[in-house]
Specification:
The protein has 123 residues and is mainly alpha-helical. It is built from five helices and no strands. α2 crosses α3, α2 packs across α5 and α4 packs antiparallel against α5. The longest helix has 25 residues. The chain starts with 12 loop residues before the first helix and ends in a 14-residue tail after the last helix.
Length: 123
């Protein structure tokens, strides 16, 4: 499979951050799922032992690429899951764990939000 390349961005953090001290668990899971799907198609591998910044950069690059593909990452991911179930399971599990660690680390770097969070809602 040939993956088109994405333009580099200055820093992935502003593109990936969600306001608030801690988003609700459902939002966290949705973001991790999207990140894992994007990371699945990145060149990062477990042997690389990527740090959170490398994961963020890989996610930004892949989202830029797959945002131009009808169906995005999910359609291609489903095809891989059907064609290579064992390899898919191993890779996706690693991607999901890696995305969760990277997103959690990113949240720790964000400054606390005022009461009402980023969207002006009270807790």
């Amino acid at each position: 499979m040939t993956t088109p390349t994405a333009p580099r961005t200055a820093s992935p953090l502003p593109l990936l951050a969600v306001g608030g001290d801690r988003p609700c668990r459902g939002l966290h899971e949705q973001i991790v799922r999207i990140w894992a799907q994007a990371l699945y198609f990145s060149p990062l591998r477990p042997a690389d032992r990527p740090n959170p910044e490398a994961v963020c950069q890989a996610v930004v690059e892949q989202l830029a690429v797959y945002s131009r593909v009808p169906g995005g990452c999910a359609d291609v991911l489903a095809q891989d899951a059907g064609d290579y179930p064992a390899a898919f399971r191993d890779r996706y599990t690693w991607c999901r764990n890696c995305a969760d660690r990277a997103y959690s680390a990113l949240l720790l770097t964000l400054p606390p939000q005022p009461v009402g969070g980023a969207f002006g809602m009270s807790a």
